[in-house]
Amino acid sequence: MFVLLIIVLLGLSAYVVLRRRGERSSSANENGAPLWATVTSRSFMLPLAAVVVAVISTNLVTNALVEADGAHARGHLASAQSGLLPVFLLAASFWALRRDLRRPLLWAAALVTLVGVAILVAGNLQVVSAVRSEASTAAASAPDREREIDDGHGVTSTGMLITQLGAAGFALALVVRKRAIGIGTAIGSAALSIVFPPWIIPGAGLFVVAGALVSRANRRDRYTAVAPVTS
To answer: What is the 3-state secondary structure (H, E, C) of 30-80?
Structure first.
């Protein structure tokens, strides 16, 4: 629920910022649509809705399949669930870049991010399993369970770091050669991916990247749809 609240707040923030920017602009864009109309269009709302549905679906499925006993285990299950969010944000980003996918550095950064996500999810689930086993086994095996929990924490931390670096690299790769987003946006996204607590949302800067790319693709599609044909 906390992740969904962040998504909603970011969506509302994008709406307010773009609407104010459009109101301050002296004129609309070439096809007569104000800038803030971007965030109310179907092309923008569909990826946002898809991310929200994906988050809700994975949370429901993992809650049904994974048994988490106690606050410690539930915390790591929530961390595993939020760790999947970069996958959905990368999917939205590549959807927006569907006409410009010849970017080897971008694919490499995305692969690093996905590897990090897989590691951190595995580490969190290892802790959840160890905590559950610790509660149901004899005291004699408690040291082994504690070591398993510590190992799970280490795996999770490694996965978080890899995800952060991959997400930051993904943002910076978008300004290499053919620029897809502004340099300031890329730097801000990379910084957010590094400094935002990864146990809440790893690679949080992907929110910025996905929003910027989807908005850019939507403006391009709107212009292409109404641009006059010249002979």
So the answer is: CCCCCHHHHHHCHHHHHHHHHHHHHHHHHHHHHHHHCCCCHHHHHHHHHHH
